[in-house]
Each structure stands twice: as structure tokens, then as C-alpha cells.
Amino acid sequence: MIKVCEYCKKEFETIDKRQKYCGSECYYKFMRSKKKVSATKTVRECIYCDKEITTEDRELFCTSECQISFYSNRIQVEEEIINKAKIKNLYDKICLWCGKEFMTRYKDKLLCCKECRWRYADSLRKAKRAANIQQKECLWCGKGFTTYKKTQMFCSRSCKIKHRCIVLSKKRREEEREVIRKFCPICGKEFISYHKTHHIHCSMKCYNKYRVIKAKIETSQVCQNCGKEFIVHHKHQQYCSAECISIVKKLRRGTSYGDDIIKMCKCGERFVTKYKQQIYCTKKCQKRHMARKLRAKKIKPAPSIKPKENIIKFCEGCGERFVTKIKKQIFCTISCGNRHRKMLSRAKKSKGSI
């Protein structure tokens, strides 16, 4: 087939119906022309042959031959090309700090390097501080000192700490804490309290005595084994000592006197049995304990399951009646179902052979 290229409008022969361009060069040039270029066209010189090029991209060579020859003979021609490839639009300037001459692309650049920038910035800071220097007197020692900070009131850190520890602490005591006279409820002595909180006792001894008395009154309980009164250290304590706990454990395990065994129920009563596995004294006690467990775990009782009703059906294999409880059942027996499936498979094979 003979076609015309859409870019260069030359005739070319092809086998493919879809082909529109004569080669890859025309295709790439067409695709580049489609792109929207924000930058304006620039005129440059080829690095190898010094010809003028008008391009929108950063192209350095006029043709691919110049590019190949440049990279093949790069080592020999390197010194000549460096002088030719200098960038245009350079500005000659003098550094503000060191006074050296330097070349830049930027119009607003004033310093030649990083060191000059740092030193120049330090000089500006020092000049601002020098302008704000003031003479003041220390509040603690009364000496004169010079500062550039408006909020500084002391000549050194030691004076600042002394003022904070001594002067301010006295002011706080005088202003915030009022002197109050009270009587201790345990020993009856008179004492002075500087705190705003409600202090009642004169010392830690009286406070500890008050705690012991309060614990006996509020948290006294009767032991379930021996019946004595004792002070409770935690909420779930039921026995006064370790001896009572060991006695109760032995009773729960069981102690045999001949054929009978004495045990303690979880309700706290003792009972006599012949069976080692028995835990509860009566059935009522067992039911109560199980009900408490269910309430604690919040277990719901299992729903009542209704029995399935019988259904009368006709078998699809043999045609006889049969009774089932399953709705999806079709055949009366498994053998009847297998026979029916074999008959269907033979019928399909016979149709396929015909």
C-alpha cells in the first residue's frame, strides 16, 4: 500500500493499514508539537558544530550525528567545549562581606558563598543587640549590669534562684497560708496549721492511732470458722488467720472418720457423706449455687427446639410413596437415587453418539 505521511507529507509503502507516519522521527516530532509548552522558544548553539538551534526543550545538539561524534571524541575535545558552552546572561558582582568579584545568574545575589552569608547574618544580629543594650540594677544584690533583653531583672542565675527561694516563699506563706489554731481530737493538744487543707491531728502518731480506731469500727467482721471478730484488710476476707483458712480447706477436701466423711458446703454448713465427690449439702443448695453462676455469666437458657413433622412424598426414581422429615429429599432410598442417575448418564451418552 502507498500512503502519505501526515507530518512531512511524503509518500511511503506499508503493509499495515493503521500506519500514518513514514518513520519514528516524524511520529515523535508530531507528538512534541501536540504538547503545550509553557516556556518560550530559545535560540542556542550546538555544542559540537556551533550551529544555531531554535528549541523549546533543553536540546544541546542539532542532529543525532553531532551527538554521537561528541560522545565518541569527548576526551579530546573537552577543553575546547567547556569554553564554548558557557552560559549567557551572567552578572558581574562584588561580595558585601569579603569584597571579591564573582559571576551569578541571579540579579539579587549579594554574597559569594555560605561562609560569607553566616558571617554577615551574625554581624546583623550583633548590631541589633548593640542597639537595644540597656543598663539595669539587680533586684537581689543591687549591682549594675548591661543587657539587650527587656525582661531580664537579675545579673546572674544565682541571684534569680535566691530571690525565688527566699523572697517568694515568704510572700506565699504570708498571703496564701493563714495561721489557724486547732485542738487534736486524740491527745487534746493545741497546734497551729498553715495549710488551707483540713488538718485535724497534731502529728503522724495521732493520725495513725485514729486510723487504727476507725478501721476497727468500720471494717470489723466475724470469722466464719471460729466466730471471732477481726479487722478486714480487703473486701472478700472471710477468715481471721491462715490457720482458719487451712482448717476450712481440709474440711472441703474431706476428712474420713470410719466410713463417713465430714465436709463443708459452699454455703458454710458442715455435712456428713459417704461420697468423696459430693460438694453440696442438699439439692436446694446446689440449685441456688448454679443459679448464681448463671446470673454472673449472664448465660441465656437454650431455646426449645420443636420436633419436625412427617411429610408424605413420591419418589422420582420408582414412583412409590415414602415418609420423611426432610423437605429436600426426592428419592425413597440411596440405591434408588443412584439407579436414576445412571439411567440419565446412559441416555446422554447415547444421544451424543447419534
Please, could you describe this protein's structure?
With 354 residues, the protein is of the alpha+beta class. Among the domains are: 2-89, no CATH class; 92-131, no CATH class; 134-175, no CATH class; 180-217, no CATH class. The protein is built from nine helices and 17 strands. It has a three-stranded antiparallel sheet. Strands 1-2 form a two-stranded antiparallel sheet. It has a two-stranded antiparallel sheet with strand order 3-4. β11 and β12 form a beta hairpin. It is flat, with a radius of gyration of 53 Å.
Key traits:
flat; alpha+beta; 354 residues; 9 helices; 3-stranded antiparallel sheet; 17 strands; two-stranded antiparallel ribbon; 37% helix
Give me a quick take on this structure:
This protein is 37% helix and 18% strand. It has 354 residues and is of the alpha+beta class.
Mean pLDDT: 79
Tell me the number of strands. Answer: 17
User: How are strands sequenced across the largest beta sheet?
Assistant: 13-14-15
Shape: flat
Radius of gyration: 53 Å
Largest sheet: 3 strands, antiparallel
Helix content: 25-40%
Alpha-carbon distance between the termini? Answer: 51 Å
Order of secondary-structure elements: EEHEEHHEEHEEHEEHEEHEEEHEEH
Low-confidence stretches: none
Strand content: 15-25%
Please give the count of helices.
Answer: 9
Helix/strand structural class: alpha+beta
Present the secondary structure layout.
Blueprint: E1 2-4, E2 11-13, H1 24-34, E3 42-45, E4 52-55, H2 64-72, H3 74-84, E5 91-94, E6 101-104, H4 114-131, E7 134-137, E8 144-147, H5 157-175, E9 180-183, E10 190-193, H6 204-218, E11 220-222, E12 229-231, H7 242-253, E13 255-257, E14 260-264, E15 270-273, H8 283-297, E16 311-314, E17 321-324, H9 334-353
